[in-house]
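User: Fold both of these, please.

Assistant: Here is the first one.
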Amino acid sequence: MSESKSRKTGERRIRSLLSQFMRAFLDDEGGQGVIEYILLLSVTVVGAGLLARGILKALDGGVLKLGGQLEKDLKTGRAPLSVYQN
């Protein structure tokens, strides 16, 4: 068998297998469960992203406040009395 002929036979075989796979996939109702899991995962990822954004914003504000206080203390050479209290 020539190389060109065997290549065409292989391509037809691959197309046939892909066609069978797609038909089976579309007929299978188990795909609905996969879609539900994907939607659930996407909602979870978006929620986690929004939560992380809020936490980072709060941390950023706290760090900026701390940095401002530290800068003030370093410029004046003294810290407020509350720093020394336990």
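And the second sequence with its predicted structure:
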Amino acid sequence: MRCLLGVSDLQDIINKATSLGAKIYRGPLFINETGRTVCQLLDPFGNVFGIEVNNQVL
């Protein structure tokens, strides 16, 4: 199962998570078809979680 948490500032969340011990697992990756940027992080306990931001302007 995959779940991505929507955030407004991807880099801010990456910085916060890594300062608390997480490591970047994959990404950040811009997905051209959807206009989203996604990143997966590995927490200190071995759990992977994903975050995403929608870069499209409505």
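The CA atoms of residues 26 and 40 lie 5 Å apart.
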